[in-house]
């Protein structure tokens, strides 16, 4: 159809926002802008793969689960979808401090993507178009629209690219190569040339996935069972409880035979033969990388994770590989319980283009082209949660701009999402970026259980969180605050309940504890809030979630106060000068990687040092403390102005 015929057609060609890509970033972005009343078009290669889990069919995990809670608080859909489709919920790190507790859930894979698609289809103001995006319409350094693979032009005030691994995507399985963004799916070949034409610096990254095997061919009886939590904790504030039946996952491990198979075929791996040029994820290495980098390890865990109730397909988490298919069969079958298993999809690596995220402003708009936004793996990240967070934040900033409001930028002390975007646009990436709790210097403030308390006000202000939900959240925390006040004001008495607690826990508490507040009693490491139910009116009426929030607020009050003081201190000291001859190798505890980069780049102040990739906030704290050692100038007395 010619351009003139298109203009005369009844088909809409003018939108407020165009989102390219229907993955997790694109789904959140399109849902947000359309729900806010902006006429939005989602352009995607295949409508059947909207919201698809290309790799592991799971949501959440260490730091990632925190981000899902934050996405939910801001009005995103990921938390609600996994709550409705999860088949194995697990709170990770319960043996550690509450700052690193992390919710995770396996999903019924097909149900998950179908529900994402259904929710988007039910969103007013959202239209769909199935095709590739081959080029952008740009005038006077401002984006005006897109051109699809079939030559259709669509115009919009804002365009967002959420292209995942599809930009010049190239799949590797041993010596086999195929132009694909996912196995058996075509790449986007034209858009990279368009971006290069307008001055964007593209580079290559690599990610991978393990083989999938048939469940009935696994001997689960010799594998370690991982049962789900008895009481699954939802991701979304809107979810009362998880009612879906839960199933177990299992664990096996590699062994010396597995490692010998990999070593014998290492040069047939595209990563080691030189066939792949892109950089792979440092923190989620292939089995080839694990065996080479951790040569002293005798075994590596393999997590056997079902992809759903109604499929026999199983994901082997921990053996991501791009070795030839026949080698994959040998290495998988060398593991206990997998001796007779059948691979139904081979593992593979995918190499793809990305743009240096330092070419973006903090709202994820490109510096070169106005009204053009990038979100997800095009920015060098890896993971569904990182992508969804970026898509949502870019969408929220488009909403704000359209309304003539200030940019929406979350601080590092407000959200993991704030840490993610700050790291990307200031530090860039050297390998696929994955969020960890260690990246957040204020993680005690950013617990997964208080995400709604921290961020829901923003989602409500932008119209993505209903007033009723906001009121319910406030009531939830007001009730907790009310009961806490009673605990602080009520003195501990020598009641039968009190003596029963001491006897049961074998606690030798001095009499001086009596008369002090019950809250002070709860602050003891050997006392839980559950022990005190019945001591004050209303405590027995709180939900398990409210009880946990209450307990954490009481126990960690002092730590939280110090954390807030750290935020204030960091803000005051970030421009403190670093001497030109500063010796980083003298700092005890400073990571080797950070020390090497700092010594090479020689930043002039703490802020410049904090912007270096591989230098974490804890490294900055160590430098600051070293500068304050006796015999050095007190940084507080140094003029920190530029």
What does this structure look like?
- The chain is globular and about 80 Å long.
- Helix 2 (24-35) packs parallel to helix 11 (384-402), helix 3 runs parallel beside helix 11 and helix 3 (64-73) runs parallel beside helix 13.
- The strands form five sheets. Strands 1, 2, 6, 7, 8, 9 and 22 form a seven-stranded mixed β-sheet that branches. Strands 16-17-18-19-15-20 form a six-stranded antiparallel β-sheet, with no helix packed on it. A four-stranded antiparallel β-sheet has the order 11-10-21-14.
- The protein is built from 21 helices and 22 strands.
- With 642 residues, the chain is α+β, with helices and mostly antiparallel strands.
What number is the mean pLDDT? 91
**Could you say which structural class the secondary elements and strand pairing correspond to?**
alpha+beta
Strand runs, count: 22
Percentage beta strand: 15-25%
Mind summarizing the main beta sheet? 7 strands, mixed
What distance separates the N and C termini?
59 Å
**Helicity level:** 25-40%
The number of helices is 21
Radius of gyration: 26 Å
* Low-pLDDT stretches: 634-642
The dominant shape is globular
């Amino acid at each position: 159809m010619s351009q003139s015929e298109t203009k005369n057609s009844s088909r809409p060609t003018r939108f407020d926002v165009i989102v390219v890509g229907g993955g997790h970033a694109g789904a959140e972005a399109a849902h947000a802008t359309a729900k806010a009343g902006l006429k939005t078009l989602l352009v995607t290669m295949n409508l059947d793969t909207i919201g698809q889990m290309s790799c592991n069919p799971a949501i959440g995990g260490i730091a990632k689960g925190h981000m899902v809670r934050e996405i939910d608080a801001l009005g995103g859909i990921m938390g609600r979808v996994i709550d409705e489709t999860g088949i194995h919920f697990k709170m990770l790190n319960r043996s550690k401090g509450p700052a690193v507790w992390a919710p995770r859930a396996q999903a019924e894979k097909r149900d998950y993507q179908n529900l994402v698609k259904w929710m988007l289809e039910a969103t007013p103001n959202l239209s769909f178009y199935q095709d590739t995006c081959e080029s952008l319409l740009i005038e006077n350094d401002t984006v005006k629209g897109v051109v699809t693979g079939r030559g259709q032009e669509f115009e919009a005030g804002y365009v967002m690219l959420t292209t995942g691994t599809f930009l010049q995507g190239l799949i590797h399985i041993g010596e086999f190569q195929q132009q694909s963004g996912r196995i058996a799916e075509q790449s986007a070949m034209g858009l990279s040339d368009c971006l290069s034409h307008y001055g964007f610096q593209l580079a290559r990254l690599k990610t991978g996935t393990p083989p999938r095997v048939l469940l009935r061919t696994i001997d689960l009886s010799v594998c370690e069972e991982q049962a789900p939590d008895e009481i699954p904790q939802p991701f979304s504030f809107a979810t009362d409880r998880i009612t879906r039946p839960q199933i177990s996952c299992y664990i096996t491990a590699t062994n010396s035979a597995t490692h010998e198979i990999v070593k014998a075929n290492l040069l047939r791996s595209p990563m080691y033969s030189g066939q792949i040029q892109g950089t792979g994820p440092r923190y989620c290495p292939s089995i080839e990388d694990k065996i080479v980098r951790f040569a002293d390890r005798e075994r590596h865990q393999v997590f056997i994770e079902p992809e759903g109730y109604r499929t026999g397909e199983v994901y082997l988490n921990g053996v991501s590989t791009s070795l030839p298919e026949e080698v994959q069969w040998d290495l998988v079958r060398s593991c206990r319980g997998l001796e007779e298993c059948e691979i139904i999809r081979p593992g593979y690596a995918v190499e793809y283009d990305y743009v240096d995220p330092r070419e973006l402003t903090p709202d994820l708009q490109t510096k070169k082209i106005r009204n053009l936004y990038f979100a997800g793996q095009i920015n060098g990240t890896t993971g569904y949660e990182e992508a969804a967070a970026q898509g949502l934040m870019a969408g929220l900033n488009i909403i704000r701009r359209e309304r003539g409001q200030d940019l929406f930028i979350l601080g590092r002390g407000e959200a993991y999402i704030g840490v993610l975007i700050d790291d990307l646009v200031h530090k860039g990436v050297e390998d696929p970026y994955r969020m960890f709790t260690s990246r957040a210097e204020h993680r005690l403030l950013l617990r997964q259980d208080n995400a709604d308390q921290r961020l829901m006000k923003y989602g409500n202000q932008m119209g993505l969180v209903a007033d009723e939900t906001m009121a319910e959240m406030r009531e939830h925390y007001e009730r907790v605050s009310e009961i806490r006040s009673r605990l602080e004001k009520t003195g501990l008495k020598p009641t039968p309940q009190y003596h029963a607690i001491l006897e049961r826990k074998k606690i030798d508490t001095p009499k001086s504890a009596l008369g002090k507040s019950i809250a002070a009693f709860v602050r003891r490491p050997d006392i839980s809030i559950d022990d005190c139910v019945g001591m004050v009116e209303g405590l027995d009426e709180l939900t398990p979630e409210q009880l946990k929030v209450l307990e954490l607020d009481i126990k960690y009050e002092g730590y939280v106060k110090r954390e807030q003081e750290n935020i204030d201190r960091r803000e005051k000291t970030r421009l403190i000068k670093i001497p030109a001859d500063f010796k980083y190798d003298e700092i005890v505890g400073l990571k080797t990687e950070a020390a090497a980069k700092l010594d090479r780049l020689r930043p002039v102040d703490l802020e410049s040092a904090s912007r270096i990739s591989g230098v974490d906030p804890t490294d900055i704290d160590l430098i600051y403390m070293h500068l304050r050692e006796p015999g050095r100038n007190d940084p507080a007395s140094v003029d920190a102005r530029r």
